[in-house]
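Continuing the series of single-chain predictions for the mutant panel. This is the parent chain; the variants come on the following pages.
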Amino acid sequence: MNMFCKKIYFILSLLIFYQSHAYTKSNSFDEIDSKNLSRYFSGIVAYDNNNSSEALNFFESSKKLLNEHDPYLRRYIYSLVSENKIQQAINIIRKKKLINDPNFFDAYLLLIIDGLKKNNFEDAHNYLEKIANFNTSKKIDSAILETLKSYIFLFKEKKFLDSDKNFGNLSIISETFQSCYLGDKATESFFLSLLNDEQNDYSRYYFFYLSYLIENDRIEESIELIKEIDYINSTLLLSQGKSWIENGKAEKIVKVFSCKNHNDIVSEFFFLISNLYSSQDDFKKSNFYLNLSIYLNSKFVFNLSLIAENQYFNREYDKLKKTLKNFKNEDIFYYWYKIKKESQIISKQKSKKDSINYITAALNKIDKPNNKFLFDIASFYKNSEKYEQAIEYYSKILDSVDENSKIRSEILYRRGSCYERLGKYKKADKDLLQSLEIYQDDAYVLNYLAYSWLERNYKIDKAIEMLETAYSLESNDPYIIDSIGWAYYLVKDYSKAEKFLKRAVELMPDDPIVNDHYGDILWSLNRKIQARYFWSNVLDMKDVEEEMLEKINIKLISGLKKI
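Parent structure:
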């Protein structure tokens, strides 16, 4: 929001404020200090711009409104929680005694959490009863209420609460942790059901299952389980958990999370809610619930990674730097996460060169770096178009992985793509074909190799065959759809090509290559006005290479030369 818009927003807010019943105590200009009002509305602008720290400063300096205006309380509380000052927020709500806004769902939620934090289940239950009387149309709020109801009953009575309400995955996960809390025999089957689910990714729950095994003195089983976890393709949480077990520090897993600890499992529930809001790009709500999660289980440092990602997305780099300080050097994967994030900040604030220099220097200080670290730095170089350096690191990984492993197939694919970018086609084809020998049904390797051949006018028929296989495996992938459409164009099957490229454009309307390809096909079908429309789209897109822009301009003037 620019300064002019901020001023307009401020004026409109004032008008709405004075003309509405939201101003609960007085409608007189004379009874409220104008400075407090000015600070309050500045706080609103800051908060709406995702600057919670600045918002909080304004709200703190206009506290006289606390008892005059209920929406002030709401925004003030949200800002406090966003800045992780949860106990302060709870204290203010308690001092208020009666919350005038009956829809202030989150205020009562904070009081429930305070009760849980202090092992006062009766308090938590009483506040839950009050909040249950609110009229909420949000399904997610209903899910929160019902889940908390079942948890509080569990903690008080040490038994399950019968309920006919089902909230899908949230209910399944809740049942798993409740079973684990009680030490129920069904716990293991619950965990295995989650981990073997083919439709949903529950890989995070490997960590909690490991905690369950370790806490029940089944350390050998946990050691066997982590053998299935591959560092390169694993999450930060699982990588660090695997590292702890491999280095004889399995107890650290139980220290950061135990399903015998009621605060830990409620914390995980709020993490799920936070992640849900994050996936919807609602970062205010995401951070609100995530801070509640961290308040309940501050030991679980991993959860800060979601806050870090939200801060990075919102370009809150100073805040992000502070958050990253929680990822300690002694936990090697958390340390590496910090280094990667710091490198990304440097890339945004300085240059890609400085970023690469920083992460490379950090890697060189690590004795015997894990393949995951080599993979990450290779990706840094690859994304910066430093293909020779990327190849060097991919080659180091290949020297240490099993001949027929899926990982080897993936690394060959990535190294091969680097060779292809350098125009070293023999080496590229060798790597990509070897990758397919290991894993022949990798749609993305098939697509990459086939498209490379199309661009070189090499083995067109074989390329089309590979693309048809890739399409049968991943029929909704826009890049594969674009490739097969372009292949049919090259063999002059324009009607078939148009069918695929039309769909590719629908899936990726902002992709310059797809728009260019579709324009070429439309021109070949004598739909020249439409062709020029899609070509001209490319000129308005970001990060289009100069060479491509030149070709597009020629097409717009002279049309498409016959192939």
